[in-house]
From TrEMBL:
Signal peptide range in chain numbering: none
Ranges of compositional bias, category Low complexity: 306-316
Region (Disordered): 306-350
Protein name per UniProt: Uncharacterized protein
Alphabetic keyword roster: Membrane, Transmembrane, Transmembrane helix
Segments traversing the membrane: 25-43, 63-87, 99-118, 124-145, 152-173, 193-217, 286-304
Biased composition (Pro residues): 317-326
Gene source species: Actinoplanes nipponensis
Domain of life: Bacteria
Length: 350
């Protein structure tokens, strides 16, 4: 494609108010849906496997945050895939149409996910609240996909998947890693080790999410017509996974607050545990957000080299002239004295 054609396409994209969606949205949509289905299936199996009503309530409260995070990513990923299919060829919908389509796709994913929870018990309000929260999360994710730069949202989704994978692997290896952080027989050492483990997990998740978001955004920029994005959008891609965690925690505390309150009424111990988990999730999301943003900024900063120096002017057909040497004050003073010494004898002869 010629440079003129590229400029025309870039101008058309700017006129429409949004760039074309990434062409590889189907793979991301598949990964997001698989993640959401796995979290909902695990939540349903855990809830239905409890014989007592109190255990069902606490299991629902434990499973709610993970299901919300997966629903956010799945809603955004499916919406990106739908937009990618609709923007093939010369068809490029406007900003309002894009937003409506993306929100509708996220809502459809959320309603399907909500059915998996509501059908556990259609008579109680508990699972209706959980299903509505999941539907709201997927709808919000779909609305985010209507953002002007879909490749940024795609990078955020891949970063969120990476954060989940890193957290899952570290949790599997938790028993092996806790002694490294000083876990012993005493309760104080176990608490301290758990705190350090949570901090390291958050930092590593932020690093991985930021790097993956940067790499996905950089690779997408090579295949997308138009100029490369500026560094604030790279920072947004790196901070996006943590931002999704913070949004998910906000939904858990607002839309799913009745579930957490009901779980806290089971016992004083359960109330304390829910409060600790809520604070830990928020801290984890904030750490992932800031670490991911700084990681992406540093990564994109390493690709920025110094401005090229302008070549010195030279005579046509000749070698390039050397740059002028700065004047030396001592040489100027010696030249002035020599000129004065030559002037004085000439005046005496006159």
């Amino acid at each position: 494609m010629s440079e003129a054609d590229s400029e025309v396409n870039a101008a058309q994209s700017a006129q429409n108010g949004a760039e074309r969606a990434p062409s590889r949205g189907l793979l991301l949509a598949a990964v997001g849906v698989v993640w959401m289905v796995a979290m909902l299936w695990s939540a349903r199996a855990t809830i239905t496997g409890r014989a007592e009503a109190e255990m069902e309530v606490t299991s629902t409260a434990y499973a709610l945050p993970g299901a919300i995070s997966a629903s956010l990513v799945a809603g955004a990923a499916v919406a990106l895939a739908v937009l990618a299919l609709l923007t093939r060829g010369a068809r490029t919908p406007g900003v309002t149409v894009r937003f409506i389509i993306a929100t509708g796709a996220g809502l459809a994913v959320g309603l399907l996910g909500a059915l998996a929870i509501i059908t556990i018990n259609t008579e109680g309000w508990l699972y209706a609240v959980v299903g509505g929260t999941i539907a709201a999360a997927a709808t919000i994710g779909g609305a985010l996909a209507g953002f002007r730069y879909p490749r940024v949202i795609a990078a955020v989704c891949w970063g969120a998947v990476t954060v989940f994978v890193v957290g899952f692997v570290l949790n599997v290896l938790q028993d092996m890693l806790l002694p490294v952080f000083g876990s012993g027989d005493s309760a104080a050492s176990q608490t301290s080790a758990a705190s350090w483990f949570s901090l390291v997990q958050s930092v590593l998740s932020g690093l991985a999410g930021g790097l993956v978001g940067y790499r996905v955004l950089r690779r997408a920029g090579r295949h997308t017509q138009g100029p490369d994005l500026r560094w604030p959008l790279y920072a947004l891609a790196g901070a996006g996974p943590g931002l999704l965690l913070v949004v998910g925690e906000g939904l858990t505390r607002t839309a799913g607050s009745r579930v957490l309150e009901l779980a806290g009424k089971v016992s004083e111990l359960e109330l304390t545990v829910q409060q600790m988990l809520s604070g830990s999730r928020l801290n984890n999301g904030l750490i992932v957000l800031f670490v991911g943003a700084f990681t992406a900024i540093i990564a994109v900063g390493r690709t920025l080299g110094p401005a090229p120096a302008e070549p010195a002017e030279s005579a046509p057909g000749g070698p390039p002239s050397a740059p002028p040497r700065p004047a030396d004050p001592d040489e100027i003073e010696r030249a002035a004295r020599a000129e004065e010494a030559q002037t004085v004898p000439a005046r005496q002869d006159d």
